[in-house]
Amino acid sequence: xxxxxxxxxxxxxxxxxxxxxxxxxxxxxxxxxxxxxxxxxxxxxxxxxxxxxxxxxxxxxxxxxxxxxxxxxxxxxxxxxxxxxxxxxxxxxxxxxxxxxxxxxxxxxxxxxxxxxxxxxxxxxxxxxxxxxxxxxxxxxxxxxxxxxxxxxxxxxxxxxxxxxxxxxxxxxxxxxxxxxxxxxxxxxxxxxxx
Length: 195
Description:
Elements: H1 8-20, H2 24-37, H3 42-54, H4 58-71, H5 76-88, H6 92-99, H7 110-122, H8 126-139, H9 144-170
Helix pairs in contact: 1-2, 1-3, 2-3, 3-4, 4-5, 5-6, 7-8, 8-9
């Protein structure tokens, strides 16, 4: 098919449909064509970054998400996900820097609560992380997949703490220190502002 014939809205809608149907190759082709047509469309950069993350290309995901945020700093889901990509790549300072873009949100907004929880996770403050992620899950009524991933992080914390407690009880002489928890990346197909 000649995707060059399609206008931006057609490309966007077809790409969203391909993403929702897990047709990653088609989605990437549609999104790349849209970016070629209009490199200033933050929605397409955002979705392309999400697809790159989904197919295991985090470096490209960071570039595309970064372009989306540069073009539209108020695209808060892209801001959150770009920070999360940095975090999962072991760059917590970059994550914190990007998440400053979430300061436009109210303190009780789900993404703000998730951000604060993950910042506690960076510092191995697991109880605070768990509490804020749980509060964020309750506040988030829009993106169910995000809640599922935050619940997964809470489960990882619980598992990590259980293993640490078991090691401490097995060897009282050990320092009992815990290492940072590795997070898996989260990328949704979009956010409600895009549809």
